[in-house]
Amino acid sequence: MSGFTLERLGWAPWLAPLSAEELTDEHHEALVDRARAASPYFLLLARDPHVLQARTHTDNDIFHNTDGGLPRAERELAATATSRRNGCVFCASVHARFAAHYAKRPDDVRRLLDEGVHAPQDGRWRAIIDASVAVAATPGELGAAHVEALRAAGLDDLAISDVIHAAAFFNWANRLMLSLGEPVKEDQ
Amino acid sequence: MTADVIDHLAGVAPGSPLDGLRRRRPAAREHAQCSFDALFAPGSETEVTLVERDAVAAFVAGLHRDDPAVRFYAERLAELAPRLADTVRAETAAGLTTGPYGIDPALPADGAEGLRYRVRNPGALGVRLTAAFEHTHLLVFRPREASREALGALVKAGWSTTGIVTLSQLVAFLSFQIRVAAGLRLLGRTGVAA
């Protein structure tokens, strides 16, 4: 596997996931969405079912709650920029496809993947990407200037909070995806 | 039932505009706390002990240099294992740097060198926590350098597959929690509309 891509990738775990026979009702509940029982990533995380379940509900609300705030496309943009900065090729590919689809801006998303987080973007995307990159830093680098830039780009408080949550969540997701397995060509 | 930890770390007062913002994403608010509870008030310590969880958490918070999180997790550890808390403080000081960085051969255009931390006092931490701290530092600062071999080092130190999943979740969750709390604290400082 080499380089960031919008192509669909597979993911192969470095540790043994639970097998279908090992899944109890508690595990199924932890997987939340039954389709996730086919994923080696979620079957590996199901080894600690309580954490997985809470994580999945957190994830779903941050990205799918449609009560105001940041449009889905830009939540996905924050996830993509975070994954690009942290070096998570798998997460970046998944969320770049979502961002490209919801925003209908595949060229801008491709530029973010190909050239990186500093590649030219319009003002609103610039502000969201810069904030996401600042959130990815350890120690954190998000400051008042980032919040000002997001407000100037038209984001209200809830939308800014959504940027923070989407970017922060991918600091959780990237670390699991990067450290428990690796991306592979999908047919492998 | 613990009080909401993100509210505590971010200084969110009940009924404040920040509280109102958090309640617009009620499941995220509730389940961020459930994640904390699952990791720090676990039903079983078979795979990862509470002392191990609190020691790693104090290290993660220290590496992020986020004062409220440093205080919160240092206090938890000091209550449970005061001598270990001193060791963790010394290891944290030795591990401080800025990230993310790292070299991934698949991403040659992006690489940046940085500290590959090794535990200073393995005798005081013990075999399991020594391996866990080195892995934790890798996850916090250079996750793109994670590898099968890094997991092998944990296995060699006595970590089970399930224990490694829990340890990874703990470090990754804290990477989220500390960032959300810091972001909300900043938003509060810049003035949230009621």
Automatic annotation (TrEMBL), chain A:
Q: Which residues cross the membrane?
A: none
InterPro entries annotated for this entry? AhpD-like, AhpD_Avi7169, AhpD_core, CMD-like, Uncharacterised_peroxidase-rel
Q: Which residues form the Carboxymuconolactone decarboxylase-like domain?
A: 49-119
This chain's protein is named: Alkylhydroperoxidase domain protein
Q: Which organism is it from?
A: Nonomuraea harbinensis
Q: Upper lineage ranks? A: Bacteria, Bacillati, Actinomycetota, Actinomycetes, Streptosporangiales
From TrEMBL, chain B:
Give the matching InterPro entries. AhpD-like, CHP04029_CMD-like
The upper taxonomy is:
Bacteria, Bacillati, Actinomycetota, Actinomycetes, Streptosporangiales
Q: Which organism is it from?
A: Nonomuraea harbinensis
Query: What is the protein's name according to its record?
Result: CMD domain protein
